[in-house]
Amino acid sequence: MSELPEETGDERVDAIVAGLGRVGELPVNEHVTVFEEAFAGLESTLAGAGDEALGER
User: Fold this and answer.
1) Cα 15 from Cα 12, distance rounded (Å)
2) Under a CB-based contact definition with an 8 Å cutoff, are residues 42 and 13 in contact?
3) Closest CA to 16 of 48, 51, 52, 53
4) Mean pLDDT, rounded, for 3-27
5) What is the DSSP code (8-state) at residue 54?
6) Which are the contacts of 42, defined by CB distance < 8 A and separation ≥ 6?
7) Which long-range contacts (CB under 8 A, 24 or more apart) does 10-14 make?
8) Residue 19 — very low, low, confident or very high, per pLDDT cuts 50/70/90?
9) How does DSSP classify residue 9?
10) Are the CB atoms for 18 and 4 separated by under 8 Å?
11) Would you state the pLDDT for residue 6?
């Protein structure tokens, strides 16, 4: 697996990306769950990006 970036500039995204690092410690049959959690977190963060631009954070 390639190295993950250290920082993205968004603390929420950084936490999600850091969570992907645990994949290497898990059995392969548990990888999908980790990726699904990361995808859901990134999707949620992206969906809220418009709210932040409007000051609704």
Assistant:
1) 5
2) yes
3) 48
4) 88
5) T
6) 13, 16
7) 10/45, 12/41, 12/45, 13/42, 13/45
8) very high
9) S
10) yes
11) 75
* CB 13, CB 45: distance < 8 Å: yes
Residue appearing with tokens 């603390």: 11
| C-beta separation of 37 from 22 below 8 A | no
Helices (H) and strands (E) in the chain, counts: 2, 0
pLDDT band, very low/low/confident/very high, at 1 (cuts 50, 70, 90): low
Q: Which amino acid is at 12?
A: R
User: 3-state class of 1 per DSSP?
Assistant: coil
Q: Which two tokens stand for residue 44?
A: 């949620």
Rounded to the nearest 5°, which phi and psi values hold at 7? Answer: -145, 145
